[in-house]
Structure formats: C-alpha cells, structure tokens
Task: structure prediction
Amino acid sequence: MTVIAVFNRKGGVGKTTTALNLLAGIAQRGVRPFGIDLDPQAHLSGVFDTHPRLADDSVYGFFMGQRPLADVAHISASGVIICPAHLELTKLDTLLGKGVNVITRLRVALKKADQAPGPVVIDTCPLLGVLSLNAIFACDLLLVPVSADFLALQGAQQVERALRALEPVFKRRLPRRYVLTRFDARRKMSSEVADLMAIAFRPDEICKTRIAENVSLAESPARHLDIFRHAPQSQGAQDYKALVEELVGTGFIA
Result:
C-alpha cells in the first residue's frame, strides 16, 4: 500500500484537483484507491458527494473519537473509497496539540492492514498544522502541486524548507515530487516558473509530467466528476493519466 499526500503551503494551486484525479487515475487501472480528505473546507469530499452531517462521521471522528478509518469511509459513485472531512477539523490544533502521538496518529492507523485496502491519496489544507503534519508523517510520497505562478513556487519552497527541518525526525529524506500545474506554454510566466523550479529543487524530484491549463479540469469538480468521467478525451485527462503512469514508473504506485 502506497500513501501519497498532496500538499503545498499556497492555496489554489490544484491540490484538490490533483488528489481527485490521482484517485480517479488509480481507479482507471482497476485498483480501488482510498481517499482521505484532511482539508476542513472539504472540497474533495464535496466532489465525491460525501457530506456527513455529524463531525463524528468524518475524519474528525477518527482523530477525536478514535473511530477506525473504515468506520467513517464511504464508497463514492466513481468507486473511490473516501474518508470525508468536516468543518470541525479546524478545531483539532487547539484540541489535540502537536505531540508525537498526535501527528503520527494517521501513520499508525494506515500501517494496520485492514485500514486501507488500496493506494491512499490524502488531500490537505495549506496550513502546516496537525492535519498536514499527519499527512506528511503518514505518506510514502509527498506530491507538491505548483501552479505556474510565483506565489505557488514560494509556497513549494516553504514546503521544501519544512521537509528539510523535519529530516532529523524522519531520519531520512522524505520522497517528494513537485508537479507543475496550470501550465500554459503561451504565457511567459509559466516558462519562468518552470525554469525557477529547476533551480529550486532537485531535478529528480520534479515531475516530468506537466498539467496544462485546461477548461475541463476547472469544470469537472463543479459537476462532481473527475476529469476521466467528465472529459475523458481532454488534455486534462491525458495529463493526469501521464502523471499516474509516471508515478507507476518510479515505483510509487504499484
């Protein structure tokens, strides 16, 4: 079982879009993935039409009520298993703090064989709090979307600095990949951000796949669909299929 967390310190870079279409792309390979929404805004949960009325029926119940992940999981219409988020997740930093047992709670749970039957994709919020730290400590790969703008690049650089600071705790270099999203070859800024990424990060940690700016990608979440169900012939579908294949080729997805 591979655990992939999608994170950037900057909002609006395509984290949820990437988590959504990674889950869908994995499902396209005939494997049922397991999605975990750790963003209190619950956008990923909304796309999959999972809106628990009670906080205890979301991942909040996992953190606060010690409920197994399987107890709060739902099977969506697209066949993806999703553990939904809830607005009450915003209270976790105050309620739980950031002790070692707190920020490794998800990691410990996912190591249990019955918790997640397939590859896991975690959507996160931009804040480096208890939720994002749980995702980072639980993952085998941190995937950092970087939309083709300078603020998104700065957010990704903040992630890199945070990961380096955490390396003594991990006792290893956490595998990560930076993926350029909303790329438009006609825009000078897109090329400039791509060039700066090559300077800021290790070349082998930058995805070869670039996710192009695409109308279908922007439309699909509003229609509660992943890109493969909404527009299977679109550039967005081709790009996310290529990203999944790249992660398969590098061994991060079986």
In short: The radius of gyration is 17 Å. Residues 3-249 form a domain with the Rossmann fold fold (CATH 3.40.50.300).
